[in-house]
Amino acid sequence: MSDVQADRLERMNRFVKRMNEVERDLTAPYVRPKDAATLILVDRSGPLPKVLLGKRHERHKFMPGKFVFPGGRVDPADRLMPVAKPLDPHAEANLMKHLQRASAAKARAFALAAIRETFEETGLLLGVPTSETVKVPAGPWSGFAEAKILPDLSVLRFIGRAITPPGRARRFDARFFTLDASAIAHRVEGVTGPDAELVELIWMPLTDAKQLDMPAVTGVMLEELDARIVDGFGHDLPVPFYSMPRGRFKRDLL
């Protein structure tokens, strides 16, 4: 094994160790995890990559005051949203692995959910301008139609998947994506603030962001992102999959 491979293996083992060291109350009745998607926006225009994080409201029952990436549940309407370009074939294939009733439409919905949730929580519309009038699903996607913007899934990278352990009251099967900040095509002001789900947004260098108060999985995915940037950030890199089937987190590759 080369020094580079040994270093990478040590780093990945450290990620798993970190996930297993977190104290958790795993006494809640079993609930089926809900499909969810999260987006890490990366600004690589300066000397150090910066990521966008939002601080959750202190009054939220779920992760109050924590710094998180925008994200949430997949909505059935996400399958119906038209796009400028489809997912990279590698990303699509990895999204369909270990998935019941796998389909390209389902993979696409995960990616679109990450983009929609980012818009809902930050006001940022991610995509490319279009001169066409397109039919979009009712609800948040109407903002894209009004701004004449279509999501471009070809530049989206699928970088991780994590399932909340059994025994938690809220469980998610979350897919983590990343996208360059140059994909920001428009911004709606006033979405974040004292009465919103995210009270503030911050752009922070990767190394500094890791020191914030955040859920363990958020911190681990920042580490995964850092590792992928070092490895070339290609679509064809294997995707880590964190799960806890028998009381201990494990890290597989999709």
Structural features, described:
With 254 residues, the protein is an alpha+beta fold. The protein contains six helices and 13 strands. It has one domain: Nucleoside Triphosphate Pyrophosphohydrolase, CATH 3.90.79. A hairpin with an 8-residue loop joins β8 (157-163) and β9 (172-180). Strands 1, 2, 3, 4, 8, 9, 11, 12 and 13 form a nine-stranded mixed β-sheet that branches. Strands 5-10 form a two-stranded antiparallel ribbon.
Briefly characterize the structure:
The protein has 254 residues and is an alpha+beta fold. It is built from six helices and 13 strands.
How would the global form be characterised? globular
SS-based structural class?
alpha+beta
The domain count comes to: 1
The stretches of 5 or more residues where confidence is low (pLDDT under 50) are none
**Chain-averaged pLDDT:** 86
Task: Tell how many strands the DSSP assignment holds.
Answer: 13
**Rg, please?**
18 Å
Head-to-tail CA distance between termini: 22 Å
Number of helices: 6
Main pleated-sheet profile: 9 strands, mixed
**In which range does the helix fraction lie?**
25-40%
Corresponding CATH architecture: Alpha-Beta Complex
Order of helices and strands: HEEEEHHEEHEEEEEHHEE
CATH topology: Nucleoside Triphosphate Pyrophosphohydrolase
CATH class: Alpha Beta
Strand content: 25-35%
* CATH superfamily label: Nucleoside Triphosphate Pyrophosphohydrolase
